[in-house]
Design brief:
This protein is α/β, with parallel strands linked by helices and 395 residues long. It contains 15 helices and 16 strands. α8 packs parallel to α9.
């Protein structure tokens, strides 16, 4: 063995709950987990780390972010405080389009530089895997620039990055009145160009985004090109986007405030993860809760993520999302913690690699100065991280 963490309390997330092992140990070789179990049965290792009774969870996973972008939208937030709606701002050329202009003007290096503080804040809370979407370029060259910047972030920091092409995020100004033509561009040029840069393709199925029919064309083209797919669905209205995502075998449908029982049933049958985004719900002062009880009833896996973005969820704290998920959406401690580990991994198609502490997976860990896992969900503004481990390396 290369390394052994011992005298620890483990929340492995294996099985259907937290997978607690009270007096545990974890061993790795070549960055992979080879043992997770009682300390008494642990193998010998070249290096042994005494955790002094600390808790260890899988490294946290932020499965929905828009981390790469230029500029900010603090002025639009101030407008919303004065009563202007998000939809009104978007239709007046603000919202996503204002970030589009800033992102188009930024170089790849500038996008990396501006994203690093946001990424570092997440890593400081135990994140070891992160999804990063494009979607603010809305031209082939600028979407690819964003995806390259996301890839670079995974080389300059010790983190696993899963880039997602979100070309169908908003209609760029040069295509006003020609939404179908822009969807053709996404399907025929953007998606093929993203092969090798993106792991998945996403779209914004919404009244201020793209219709279910247009979104379906994007998902179909993505599947044809070999991409996994996911969908922003049911955030502001009920359009059947979650059911659409499920019909395409999507990894996840995200937001879901207006999802119906039909959506929940379809997602359960397809194995599509529900990614809930309490930061956006809070920041936009929404009042229509996602149907958590329906998701539970039909057995839909629930994940949580920051939705880190400049307009509707400018947060870089996944720990805060744990508290918001419990406080606003009434998730249990177990649901919240599994939502940023095992179910977040599933939402990225990475269940075989990360999300639980089990042999043969990557040795990605978060070691915490806590007395009980509930503290990770209970506290607001606290960061009890002791250390972060990525591929067996303390970092």
């Amino acid at each position: 063995m290369d390394r052994l963490w011992t005298n620890a309390r483990l929340a492995t997330m294996a099985g259907d709950d937290l997978g607690v092992i009270e007096d545990g140990a974890i061993a790795c070789r070549d960055g992979r987990l080879v043992y997770a179990g009682p300390r008494a049965d642990a193998p010998k290792a070249a290096e042994t780390i005494d955790c002094s009774g600390r808790w260890i969870t899988p490294g946290l996973i932020d499965c929905h972010t828009h981390l790469v972008h230029a500029g900010n939208r603090a002025n639009e937030w101030a407008m919303r405080l004065e009563g202007v709606s998000y939809e009104e701002i978007a239709r007046a050329g603000g919202g996503i389009l204002s970030t589009m202009h800033a992102t188009r003007d930024a170089s790849e290096a500038e996008l990396v530089e501006s994203a690093l503080p946001r990424l570092d804040a997440l890593l400081a809370e135990g994140v070891t895997t992160i999804e990063i979407k494009s979607g603010y370029g809305l031209r082939v060259e600028d979407e690819l620039k964003m995806l390259r910047a996301a890839r670079v972030l995974g080389t300059v920091r010790d983190v696993r990055v899963s880039p997602t092409l979100l070309g169908a995020h908003a209609l760029p100004p040069e295509y006003v009145g020609r939404a179908d033509a822009y969807v053709d561009l996404v399907c025929e040029e953007m998606i093929p160009a993203a092969i090798g840069l993106a792991d998945a393709v996403d779209a914004f199925c919404e009244g201020i985004g793209f219709t279910p029919e247009q979104s379906g064309l994007v998902l179909a083209a993505a599947r044809e090109a070999g991409f996994a797919v996911k969908l922003h669905a049911e955030q502001l209205s009920a359009l059947g986007g979650a059911s659409l995502a499920a019909s395409h075998g999507a990894l996840s449908a995200d937001h879901l405030e207006h999802a119906t029982e039909t959506d929940a049933r379809a997602m359960a049958e397809a194995g599509t993860v529900a990614v809930l985004l309490p930061g956006a719900y809070y920041f936009m002062r929404e009042t229509h809760l996602p149907p958590v009880d329906l998701l539970r009833t039909h057995g839909v896996p629930i994940a949580l993520a920051t939705d880190c973005n400049p307009g509707t969820s400018p947060t870089t704290s996944l720990l805060l999302m744990l508290n918001m998920g419990a406080t606003l959406f009434r998730l249990t401690v177990t649901e919240a913690l599994r939502g940023v580990t095992v179910h977040a991994a599933r939402a990225l198609g990475l269940s075989q690699e990360v999300g639980t502490i089990e042999p043969d997976k990557a040795c990605d860990l978060a070691i915490w100065n806590i007395a009980d896992p509930a503290e990770l969900v209970y506290r607001i503004g606290a960061n009890p991280l002791h250390s972060r481990v990525k591929d067996g390396r303390c970092c």
